[in-house]
Amino acid sequence: MSIKLVTGLGLALLAEGGLMAQGSLTVAESIRKAWAGQAGLRAGQALVEARQAEAEGFRDLRLPSLTLRAQGIRTNEPMMAFGIKLNQARIGAADFNPQSLNHPEAIGAYGGSAVLQQPLYTGGRLTAARRAGDYLAQAEAASQERRKQETAQAVVEAYFGTQVAEQALRWAEDSRSWIQGMEDFVDARVKQGLMLESERQRLKALHAQIDAQRADATRQVRSARSGLGLLTGTGPVEGPLATPLEPVEPVAPGTPLPSGRRGDLQAADLQARAAAEGAKAARGSLRPEVGLEVGAGTLHHSWSDKGNWTWAAVGVTWKVFSAPDQAKAKAARAQERAASDMQVFKQQQAEHEIRVARESVLAAQARHAAAKESLAAAEESKRLREARHREGLAPLIEVLDAEAAIQGARTLLLQSLYELRVSRASLDLATGTPIEGVKP
User: What is the CATH number of domain 3-60+125-279+323-437?
Assistant: First the structure.
C-alpha cells in the first residue's frame, strides 16, 4: 500500500469547516474542535432538541385544551333564525306565528363561546405516547453521542493521516539530499574516468523520480491539512501537530478490554422501548374514551340584548369497529417486533466489531514490529553497500537497490504506524470507550 493510499484512508470521512487553526494542535484538541464546530454534529444536536420538543408535546396531551370561538352571522334560514332568537333570549309570542316561522325576516347576531375539554380516560393511549416520546428523545441523544464518537474516530484517521504525509515528505527531502550527494560523488568519479557516464545518468533519473515523489508528498500534506481542518470545522490547519504518531501502549493477547456503553446500542434499546409503547398507544385507540367538556356561550342582538348559557358534559366515545385503527395497531405490533429484532442484531454486530477490532490491533502491532526491523536492516544494508561503492567494490546499482529497499521499508513503517493508531481508535469505538481518552 502506497503512502498516497495510506493518507487517503485518513481523509475518507470528512465533514464541514470554518476558520483557520493556529499554533500546535493535539489530537484531543482536534476532536473537541470537531464536536464544537462541525456542522454535521450541530445538525445532529438540532435533531436531539427536536425530539425533546416532541416529547414535551406528548407529555402535554393529558392537559386540558381551551378553545375560544367568535362569530357573526346573518340568515333567514327558518331553523337558524328561530334558534338565534332563542339563544339571544328574545323569543316572543309573535315568533310562533306560522307565517313568521316559515318565512322569517333575515336576522343578525354576533357572539362567542369558550370550551374546556379534559380527557379522563383514553385506554392508556396518552400515557403510552408520552413514554414513547421520552424514549425517542433519549434514543436521539444516545445516537448523537455515537455520532460524536464516530467523528472522533474520523478525526484520528485524518490527524495521523496528516502526520503520515508529513513524515513521507521529510523522508523525500532526506532522499533528495542523499541523491544530491551521490551525484556530486559520481560526477567527480566520471570526470576522473573511474565511472561510466551511464551511472551518472542513472542517478539523474533517480533524482527526477525523487523530485516527483517530493512534489506528490507536498500535495498530500496540503490536502491532508485541509481535510483535517474540514473535519474539525476550523479550515486548513496550520502549525505543528503535537500528538506523536508513535504507537500507544500495546494490547496484549488475552488482556481484558475496557468496555463502555455504546451510544448506538443505547439508542437501539430505547427505540425498542419506544416501539413497544407505540404498540400500546395503537391498541389504546381501539378502546373507549371518556372526556369532560365544560363551556360557556353568548349571542348578542345588540350590546345589551343578548343571551348567555353554560354547559358541562361527560361523554364516552368508542369506535367499536375501525378498520384503519386496527390496521395501525397491527402495523405498530410489527414495528415493535422489528425494533426488538434490530436491538438483538445491533448487539451481535457490536460483539463482532469488538472481535474484529481487537484482531486488527494485534495484527497492526505485529506489522509495526516487523516494519521497524525491516527498516533497520535496510538502513544497515544501504550503509554497507554505499561504503563498498565508495571504495569501488560494489556497483552503483546495488546502492540504488538499497535506497529503494529503504523507501519501501519506510512506506511499510508509516503504514503500520497509521494502521496501529487507527485500529486502536476503532477498538475504542467498538467497545464504547472514549477515543484517545477524550470524553464529551
Answer: 1.20.1600.10
pLDDT at 319 over 60: yes
Domain positions in the chain:
3-60+125-279+323-437, 66-124+286-317
- 409: cell is 521499508
Neighbouring-strand partners of residue 295: 115, 311
Model confidence at 18: pLDDT above 90: no
pLDDT band at residue 110 using 50, 70 and 90 as cut-offs: very high
> From the CB of residue 91, how many other CB atoms can be counted at a distance below 10 Å?
14
Q: Is the pLDDT of residue 20 over 80?
A: no
pTM of the model: 0.76
Q: Which CATH class is domain 66-124+286-317?
A: mainly beta
Residue percentage of the chain with pLDDT more than 70: 92
